[in-house]
Amino acid sequence: MVKIIYFVLLIMLGTSAVAQIDQSTLTVVGKATIKAIPEEIEFRVPLQIIDSTYLGCSNRMTRSLDKLQKDLDKKGVAEESIRTSSYSITENMVYEEGKRIQRGYKGSVNVMVSDHYNHEFIQNVLESLGNLKLLYSISFSMSEEQKEVLTKTVIVDAVEDAKQKALIISKASEVQLGTIVKITYGMDSFRSGPFISERALSSQVSEAGSNELNLSPPLTSLSKSVVIEWKIN
């Protein structure tokens, strides 16, 4: 019984070795990472209004939006830089003594103000938001042109990394690389949302007027990987 098991084991090992030799390929993963500072900045301003009547809530929402847009326009912020989303007016439900009751209406809308990162634009928006005592958050992102350039660059770098690794391995193994058999792309290892770096910031300022918010865009990284399989001559 022992001899039979031993004989079967030898056959299995021999088959595995032959399969590896017949394949005669070298597979290498090329990786690359590129870092850059985002070119765009966006202010997100959540406006909320609570009123006892639906009409009153709607009118106050309209006035608040109009007031903000006029102030931004006065500061020189372009109309195309201002967008709104998620406009809604709902019943304002609250809990009192364990019961859920309606207390008027609640209106909300998000205002986005975005442009290429520049100090004059940031100063103008901050002055408007400060004058109207509005809360906001900011996010930094790559422009479409910047994303396209960086993506092309990092892919080329990943392919070059794979080629260099393949040359080193083949030289150390004393084998000669042949033609490329297969290329697999899309196995990325970057974090979700690599082109966006967001910080939730408040416009609240102390009585002394100090504001310690860091409005500088952070360094953002993008990583790509590519798998290349060479035939070994």
- Unreliable parts: 1-22, 189-211
Oligomeric form of this entry?
single chain
The share of residues in extended strands comes to 35-45%
Instruction: Give the radius of gyration.
Output: 30 Å
CATH superfamily of the domain at 40-142: Protein of unknown function (DUF541), domain 2
Please report the number of helical segments: 4
Distance between the termini: 42 Å
Report the count of strand segments.
Answer: 8
Tell me the CATH architecture of the domain at 40-142.
2-Layer Sandwich
CATH class of the domain at 40-142: Alpha Beta
- Sheet with the most strands, sense and barrel status: 5 strands, antiparallel
Protein name: SIMPL domain-containing protein
InterPro entries: 26kDa_periplasmic_antigen (IPR052022), SIMPL/DUF541 (IPR007497)
Pfam family, one: SIMPL
Organism: Lutimonas vermicola
Describe the structure concisely:
With 233 residues, the protein is of the alpha+beta class.
Describe the 3D structure.
Residues 1-19 form the signal peptide. This is SIMPL domain-containing protein. The chain has a domain at 40-142: Alpha-Beta Plaits (2-Layer Sandwich), CATH 3.30.70.2970. 37% of the residues lie in helices and 38% in strands. The chain has four helices and eight strands; from the N terminus they run αββαββαβαβββ. It has helices at 2-23, 54-74, 119-131, 144-173; strands spanning 25-36, 40-51, 82-96, 99-116, 137-141, 177-185, 196-199, 220-232. The strands form two sheets. Strands 3-4-2-5-7 form a five-stranded antiparallel beta sheet. It has a three-stranded antiparallel beta sheet with strand order 1-8-6.
